[in-house]
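Reader question, answered in our methods column.
A reader sent in the components of a multi-part assembly and asked whether the whole thing could be modeled at once rather than chain by chain. We filled in our standard form and ran it. Here is what they sent:
COMPLEX SIZE: two components
ENTRIES:
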Amino acid sequence: MEGFDPKIHGLDEDFVLTKLTKMKGCGCKVPRDVLLQLLQTFKTDLVINNDEVDIGLDSCVIPLRHPGLRLVQTTDFFYPLVDDPYIMGRVTCANVLSDLYAMGVSECDNMLMLLGVAVDLNESQRDIIVRLFIQGFKDAADEAETKIRGGQTVRCPWLLLGGVATSVAHETEIIKVDRAVPGDVLVLTKPIGGQVAVNSYEWLKNKNGKIEELNLDESKIRKAFKQVCEQMSRLNRNAAKLLHKYEAHASTDVTGFGLLGHAENLARVQKENVEFVIDKLPIIEYMDEIADRMIENGGEGFRLFEGRSAETSGGLLVALSERSAKAYIDELSSLDHAPAWIIGRVVEKSDDSVARIVGDAIRQSIISPL
Amino acid sequence: MEGFDPKIHGLDEDFVLTKLTKMKGCGCKVPRDVLLQLLQTFKTDLVINNDEVDIGLDSCVIPLRHPGLRLVQTTDFFYPLVDDPYIMGRVTCANVLSDLYAMGVSECDNMLMLLGVAVDLNESQRDIIVRLFIQGFKDAADEAETKIRGGQTVRCPWLLLGGVATSVAHETEIIKVDRAVPGDVLVLTKPIGGQVAVNSYEWLKNKNGKIEELNLDESKIRKAFKQVCEQMSRLNRNAAKLLHKYEAHASTDVTGFGLLGHAENLARVQKENVEFVIDKLPIIEYMDEIADRMIENGGEGFRLFEGRSAETSGGLLVALSERSAKAYIDELSSLDHAPAWIIGRVVEKSDDSVARIVGDAIRQSIISPL
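And here is the structure of the entire assembly that came back:
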């Protein structure tokens, strides 16, 4: 997966997809507090109850005119964060679908593809890139057993990639994500550190001096980049199906707001007052070292250890009983050929639900399952 | 509606929304032939049959796992084409909904709002503009009796506005749009010339010398601009409901590809070989004169008379029996307080279906119903 070669595809040697944007992947999101403030206009429409889910969670769930049926729907769009348009297509589709999967909805009835074609591209570049992107998007949709039937394509200064996933589901197909109880454990299905992996690989390609400055190991960065491409392309669909089998009490997917950001969002909607306490951080191998060195040099290290580093097409974060968790992890690992971990627990709280990462959280270095 | 005053809303006097993009409204679309070529990857998914509709038409219609139900879905996004963010919100919502309405689907079960917030905006500008935009979008959604529950907001070099409209409809709620027969007439529910109105108003505001060069009447341009804002904000919902009552045989909405472009798209999917012959062009008052003067000066006049001038949130183009057409127009006019016209007829054709505008088409100048 590493080392997209523009020449093989008929592009100039120095063609770089990620130069077509100044923001990467889910890092482009407008901050949550700004968003919520701007969305106050909708406040009367965004009631949290049994039937509808708040805009900060993953998909909207809408009662239909037809008994027992719900419309489950999500949209996402962002910018290229790796240079291979085919991989970007897969990642975009996986990332959009993930919001359905986070609700336990494993059947997507329709995908729309959203595409902004960068105005700086000449026609030949445009055709090559868009074709590869569409192929990747379609392959991921095929794997998800859904079809792309519709979309919109506009010209845009940056290459803009996205989609809309829709399912018309029986209420029984949807996991209630607000039932976490003290005693539950928290499971994470992909390691964090994606933003570090993508950015350190950029430094390497751009030869901007960062690698030398931080004295980093190039081969480890290349390995991490392959790993993050694999995990961003991997669908959370098996993880979604197993939510039902193992009776998950809460779930969300980890994307632009980082592990702790999404844990906080999930905590906030719980019916009981609970605290999500995260005491283990599974991190893509070597990414913790990079973050450490950045922090030693006075940087923020992408706020990785604070759980604020953005993930694109990250894993599911699930609350379920401890016994179920072990079986969930075992079965998921055997289906996806990739590990998952118990990263914390749900404890009682006397007032508003929150999430936190303990100060001495164990860092676990995760080697690519490839 | 004319004359958005930035100062009233706390913006700098010289703040101009449409400067946040280099493309306007539906004019930003990637040309249809390019699009179809790029979408070849999907060809196996885009079968035209009784259940599914081609990507070039307005909404995708997808059979669901639940008997008798169809998922009808559409998405659109584009850039500001008028400077009033509130009006742009209304227009964006109306334009997205229009693709459902073109299929006769009058009940939208959910709207997603898509928003790219221009990176050049400072926080105060951003908050003012986004709030006004959302308010306009929401007011149009209220009028359509639907709700906005979900969406995505990213930073983007240009201000990007869009939405996704979804309906889960009984098959009986959906008009079969491929049943035009010789003898039918063609009805149009909003005049063309929107692109001319929006652009000539820009010339006036920008004082770029075009007004003097073409010797244009400022007050007529201002009047046309009000008219186009009104008609772009007007929902095609009543027009959609009446498709059922008057048993329309075919329908589409007129947007980025212009009147003839959309007539061609509609002709192409008809079951019978037919020709759509357009012999009348209802044009927003004075816009024909502007186009004429541009052509006299060696320009293309937005290709208005060729039916290629882009419309944003344009009217429906409907084929139905002549008797029904008159009743359709009467009832629609009384509901919307705005006229509609028979603009042509459906005739036999021995081979592939096409659409054309006759050389001596009558130009009808349409005065604002306001």
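What stands out: Chain B touches chain A through 61 residues (CB under 8 Å). The longest strand of chain B covers residues 354-366.
Send us your own complexes using the same form.
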